Amino acid sequence: MEKLWTRLRGSKPLLWGIVGALIVGILIPVVLLVPRRHQAGAPDSPEAHQAIVTKVITSMDRASLIGASPTKGNPNAAIVLFKFSDFQCPYCALAAANMKGFVANHDSDILYVYKNFPLTQIHPEALPAAKAAWAAGQQGQFWLYHDGLFANQNRLGEDLYVELAEAMGLDMEQFNRDRASAAAAAAVQQDLALAQRLQLQGTPSFIMNDLLIPGGAPPQLFEEIFTQINDLIKNQSKP
Length: 239
Prior knowledge:
- The chain is α+β, with helices and mostly antiparallel strands.
- It has eleven helices and five strands; from the N terminus they run H-H-H-H-E-E-H-E-H-H-H-H-H-E-E-H.
- A five-stranded mixed β-sheet has the order 1-3-2-4-5, sandwiched between helices.
- Helix 5 links the parallel strand 2 (79-85) and strand 3 (110-116).
- Helix 6 (126-137) crosses helix 10 (182-197).
- It starts with a helix and ends with a helix.
- Mean pLDDT is 86; it is low at 19-39.
């Protein structure tokens, strides 16, 4: 992973856009804040938080960062966009809708990676929903199930989890076994552990390579950041 924050600091419009989005993320209503048991405390400033994110991301290899998480796009893309999300978070539902077009437009240029970040102290259905989506993923239907959960967010619960799985034609015995398994719990916990290392403060949170983009960022900022990163990568590859 490239240390993009250091390289992009020379772009003042982009820098202010990112910092502004970080501040918006900090000011998002308290319902989005990560429970304190998940965190050692918020970083002192947006730049301090970015430094933490860069340190963590660049200390891990690509395979370890992605792990077995659900992905969309080009698995060999130079740009990786991580989304840390909670199925019961209303802002995550909005972000999921907003990101569809962006990810589709850059299908060959980006690898989009979903990471679970259930805020269990304030969202009682976040963890069961994450496990159900993981179980759907074991049968190759994570993204369809992901869309179904967000589209029916006001109905999160056992009836919906079963209804979606049956509508998708999943093997129900396997689905129920998988979502209740230790492997499902471990997969979610692995994502949570990464979110804790990154000191993420709310959902949704995005990281493009090593650049932190909070959920409060407008869609056009994703395009601008993508363009800047892609240009850097192209310039580095020139002889």
